[in-house]
């Protein structure tokens, strides 16, 4: 790989990371939004989800349960949707082993919380690094065709990024 290719690839990666960071932080600084059809757009042009109206006021388990329950699924299987339904039904926050700032500011305040103070803990990992952490699990299974399609969309998006980088290099 030539030096020029490495520089072009590095520039593409930096732009991608900057875009992701901008997208994650845009709801945090109180960007004004305008309503277009069925979604909100902030001044960066990114879609924003309207604030969530909860059926019950969200609360943490008190005292925390000694039994931490894992909510395990393949990515794209509806894990976040099930967490939303559980929070609506119980009023108790659900956690995650991940830190998704977009979810955190839009109704999931327990992102990156993995103890017994939450109802369940979202994970796509298997098996856990700490095998004794979870005392039980809920396994969420989606139609494999749909889950595989979801995974292939992500692979396709990644390949398109690589093709775009190659196109830039070959045209110069």
TrEMBL record:
Keyword entries, A-Z: Membrane, Transmembrane, Transmembrane helix
Domain of life of the organism encoding this protein: Eukaryota
Membrane-crossing residue ranges in chain numbering: 6-25
Alphabetized InterPro entries for the sequence: Sialate-O-sulfotransferase
Stated name of the protein: Uncharacterized protein
Species assigned in the record: Manduca sexta
């Amino acid at each position: 790989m030539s030096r020029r290719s490495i520089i072009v690839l590095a520039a593409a990666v930096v732009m991608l990371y900057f875009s992701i960071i901008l997208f994650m932080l845009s709801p945090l600084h109180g960007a004004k939004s305008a309503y277009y059809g069925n979604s909100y757009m902030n001044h960066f042009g990114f879609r924003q989800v309207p604030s969530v109206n909860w059926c019950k006021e969200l609360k943490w388990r008190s005292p925390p349960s000694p039994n931490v329950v894992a909510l395990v699924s393949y990515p794209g299987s509806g894990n976040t949707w099930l967490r939303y339904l559980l929070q609506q039904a119980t009023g108790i926050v659900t956690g995650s082993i991940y830190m998704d700032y977009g979810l955190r500011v839009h109704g999931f305040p327990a992102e990156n919380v993995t103890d017994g103070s939450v109802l369940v803990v979202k994970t796509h990992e298997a098996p856990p690094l700490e095998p004794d952490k979870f005392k039980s699990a809920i396994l969420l299974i989606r139609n494999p065709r749909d889950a595989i399609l979801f995974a292939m969309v992500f692979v396709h998006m990644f390949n398109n990024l690589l093709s775009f980088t190659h196109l830039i290099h070959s045209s110069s």
